[in-house]
Structure of Winged helix-turn-helix transcriptional regulator:
Amino acid sequence: MDSSDLKILDILQADGRITTSDLAERLRLSPTATGERLRRLTRDGVITGYGARLDPARLGLGLLVFVEVSLDKTTSDVFAQFARAVRLTPEILECHMVAGGFDYLVKARVADMAAYRGFLGDVLVALPGVKETRTYAVMEEVKRDGPLPVRGG
């Protein structure tokens, strides 16, 4: 990737709806060359998609929680079963296997603490292999949906 590719990525992270012609103008490239770069970056998997950023509170999802999850066994089949179940759980926004004192860090969104209590009891602890959880409710989101630190100009 050259500096023009990095600048494309930087611009798209800030404005995914920019037209190819406006993007080309900002890059000082032709629309054809810019379109070719976009197609290559998409084909190569650097650009993985586009989407709208939504306000969770306006959608009734005001509570963000992070949950440490420990499994009862750390075998590949338990990991696979847990991962499959997590992918099917809409409240879970992100799930990361981590090194350290627990197995997974889960990021989830629900309406409020009462909804979280139901989610914890009915869904989270019922996921395959879950032995223990530790929850951290977010009091304030200081930075959210930050762009990746590409340096394109």
The beta strands are 63-71, 92-97, 104-110, 130-137. The mean pLDDT is 96. Helices lie at 3-14, 20-27, 31-43, 76-87, 113-122.
